């Protein structure tokens, strides 16, 4: 494997690594949205599978998948995130079948050639930080056999909650910030590009090696995490939002209008 070199996004997330879990992972909304992704992961992946996790962050999903009987190779561009993930594993699940590696998603091909996987997982927008998804799809295709599932969770381009929330606060720039398909994020002073591909663009980027099986909204009436304090004081409302989302999250007109969308793709061909 090549010497690890991070990206600007990786350096930016380094600065967030120690607070990421308290800000997002353990927030009421973070838990609510992750629960949906976990439900889908348990359906898509089988016990005994070896899963490649991209942009694993602090390792919350990798440890969950390992507890569900999978082996996970979990990668992230941020050394700080990888350190947090290793620390969490040492503390909470020392024997877990997970290996955390510092690796940019753009460099999957630098993993040892002998490493092949039964599925691929990416949660909560790490792939929105990658400009060339066609190259990622090609690199992944060489590590997977026909029928292997990919579960990839992206930030959407059109988030109904975000539009309403920022318009009501008189900030149209933020309300429509994702609409052009690209923004510049700024984390603790470090700027990096974030992309918001449409479902059609993702279908094209992953073809012909992968076909799109389904798209599911994650956080449709359940709001984005910056509304957490408002929701925390309204638990019954959150339950109602979760129930509505459960009913409508796969409806064609709605599945790309939440905070996130979860794409289930499948390797086709040899
Ligand atoms: C919003 S966090 C999500 C983390 C985790 N998947 C989760 O569900 O909590 C996005 C993650 O993507 C990682 N990331 C951003 N760009 C990346 C890249 N090019 N390659 C690998 N990881 C990247 C960041 O370091 C960060 O950990």
TrEMBL record:
Q: Which InterPro entries match?
A: Methyltransf_25, SAM-dependent_MTases_sf
Q: Name one GO biological process term.
A: methylation
The highest taxon in the source lineage is Bacteria
One Pfam family name from the record? Methyltransf_25
Keywords per UniProt? Methyltransferase, Transferase
Limits of the Methyltransferase domain: 51-145
A molecular function GO annotation: methyltransferase activity
Record's protein name: SAM-dependent methyltransferase
Q: What is the lineage of its organism?
A: Bacteria, Pseudomonadati, Acidobacteriota, Terriglobia, Terriglobales
